[in-house]
Amino acid sequence: MSDMSFNSIKTPSAQRRRNGFTLIELLVVLVILTLLAGLVGPRVMNLLGGAKSKTAVLQISDLEKSLEIFKLDVGRFPNTEEGLNALVVKPGTMNGWNGPYIKGNVPQDPWGKPYAYSNPAASGGLEILSLGADGVAGGTGENADIRNQP
Description:
- The chain is mainly alpha-helical.
- The protein has two helices and three strands; from the N terminus they run ααβββ.
- A hairpin with an 8-residue loop joins strand 1 and strand 2 (127-130).
- The model has no long low-confidence stretch (mean pLDDT 82).
């Protein structure tokens, strides 16, 4: 007989059980991950949504600054028909245009929609407007309209 005791002999099925995770262990991990995603996910999405609104505010501010430079060169702001595209492409035979006033094309809002521009606006002056995430006038939170300050 050999010096090996009965307890030191390992069967193939015992070895397999020690090499991997059991189905119960995997299910417990999945439940924990699901609970964490349910708690953390909505908070992360709210932070991302707020970032889009802040991005829209910054883009509108940059467009306003570009419009001010346009006005210094041309003597007026673009009218509604000329729109924000006048910052990139010279409208007609406009005297004094020294653009383009922004790099590339006119940016879209963070939700992929074009900014609305009007001059004169209903309140007077000019207006740059994003309709928010829903693309509909009005709303609250991420669906709220974002516009330049009069």
